[in-house]
Design a protein that fits this description.
DUF4911 domain-containing protein; 82 residues; DUF4911; Alpha-Beta Plaits; alpha+beta; four-stranded antiparallel sheet
Amino acid sequence: METIKKFIRVDRREIAFLKFVLEACEGIATMRTIDGPSGTILFSISPGCEHEADRVLRDLEREIMMESVVPGKEYIRRSHEY
């Protein structure tokens, strides 16, 4: 299944919180930590769930710092390792 990928940097202390929130939104996206020390994570958004995932991410941005990251080759390689 082809998913939409978004690389985002957050405060690393919020990674577990984000994972729990996404798990509560069953099936719209999965999350993978790409680089823990920098707080870089990867959201893989399920096809057809883009609007719902964007809404969840916008709501979360009100609570925690989140910024989009342009993935370098290293991040792209790590995102395919699992």
